[in-house]
Amino acid sequence: MNAPEAHDDVYERLADAMDAQPAGFTRTPNKLEIKLLRLVFTPEEALVASTMSRKPETAAEIAARVDLPEEKVTVLLESMVPRRMVRADTLALESGVKGLGKVEAKPGQAKVETVKKYRASPFLVGWYESYLQELGPNSTEFARTYEQYVIEGGGEKVFCPRPGPQGVIPYRGSLKPEWLKREPHNDIDAHFQRHDRFLVIDCVCKHEKVAAHGKSCALPNKRCGFVGMPPAVPFSETVISREEAIKLWNELDAMGTMVVEGFYGFTMGAEEPQFVGGCHCCGCCCTILNAARLARLDETIQRSNYRVVKNTETCASCGECVRRCQFYAHTFDKTKDTQPVYHRALCVGCGACGMGCPTESLHLEPVSEEEWFQVPSSFQQWEERRLEFLKDLEATKDQK
User: Fold this and answer.
1) DSSP three-state, residue 316
2) What's the start-to-end Cα distance of the chain, in Å?
3) Ranges of each domain in the chain
4) 197-202, strands of its sheet edge to edge
5) C-alpha angle 288-186-272 in degrees, rounded to nearest 5
6) pTM of the prediction?
7) Cα distances (Å, whole numbers) of residue 233 to 225, 241, 271, 278, 388
8) Closest CA to 129 of 203, 25, 199
9) Who contacts 394 (Cβ-Cβ below 8 Å, separation ≥6)?
10) What's residue 95's pLDDT?
11) How does pLDDT run across 157-207, given as a tens digit for each residue?
């Protein structure tokens, strides 16, 4: 597969395969998506990945389809897994029970016959972050191409379909206990109590901003993850104690960043929905939040099930809510407004404004049952919900 035309063809096929996924990978007139793929996938990797879908398959099945030795395909797949270009799960073989289940080894458990299967991975949240994390500020060409890709329409199918690619987690301390009981994935305090050390890394999106523009905002680099780690993991520059993690978390809250998390992270390594970590994001750097500004998208982040309620009588007109809100749900035109104006339709329910309000004039309340959003409990469920949304969207377009 040395001819340039063959390479072009395999990247085209890979772009089509990725766009067919629920996560989306919009095709653009200038084929910027092809440029992104060429920067990340080698021709052989693109060949293998272009034949993959949401369906988990063995290396042997994939090898037969691409007419390459199974050993070679296995090496290619395994090299792409840590870079999040494909996903891999060890699954229990069928034995009188319909379907395959992911296997997690447990002490004292009888050995179960398993098979490793691979499936396609999304662009975002997926190999986009991994590539940027690997190259950091050296990924200038990729970062600039990505921003242009979003501006030229590439972000619409990636960010707009519901459920969104990531979701808002309301501020720590902003929700009542009974609300947390209904949605345990919002319980940040319970997460801090479950572990005694946490992985906190630099913001990948800030790397992208520096790579694309030579600079980023003044907010700290270290603000992503807060993922609980096993006791055996040693402390380091990125693995910190519970006390250090809570202190850093509170400092980031005070700055007005907002907490977001991938929905399919809610059950990652957990037997039931729970908060497993999140990123403190800002609208100036965050790939998902900033996409709304770059492409003027109506939706990007998935809103929480809460909205801010404002007491206009106690508002001191300090403007802190305007500074903190990443979505312009609070505006203040001092030439005509006596106090900041709250726009509920733009609120994503993070509670950042309320946590920073000196007069406690802002607080979160649950949305109505009609407006309530049932959070997916797994990546697979997230994909199914997206497919339903896209199907309904197409049906609506056909009716018009």
Assistant:
1) coil
2) 45
3) 4-95+111-121, 163-295, 306-366
4) 222-228, 197-202, 239-241
5) 105
6) 0.88
7) 16, 11, 21, 20, 41
8) 203
9) none
10) 46
11) 999 999 999 999 999 999 999 999 999 999 999 999 999 999 999 999 998
Question: CB of 180 within 8 A of CB of 111?
Answer: no
| Degrees to nearest 5, angle at CA 335 with 333 and 339 | 50
Say which amino acid occupies 390: L
User: Which CATH code is given to the segment(s) 306-366?
Assistant: 3.30.70.20
The answer to whether the 4-95+111-121 and 306-366 domains have the same CATH topology is no
- Of the candidates 191, 226, 185, which has an alpha carbon nearest to the alpha carbon of residue 376? 185
Q: Which CATH architecture has domain 4-95+111-121?
A: Orthogonal Bundle (1.10)
C-alpha closest to that of 246 among 297, 284, 193, 282: 193
Residue with token string 């609070």: 330
Is the distance from CB of 219 to CB of 286 less than 8 angstroms? no
Structure tokens at 374: 């049932």
Which parts of the chain register pLDDT below 50?
Answer: 95-100
Find all residues with CB under 8 Å of 131, minimum gap 6, and list them.
39, 40, 83, 139, 142
Q: Which two tokens stand for residue 230?
A: 């096993």
HSE, CB side, 13 Å, CA atoms: give it for residue 34: 13
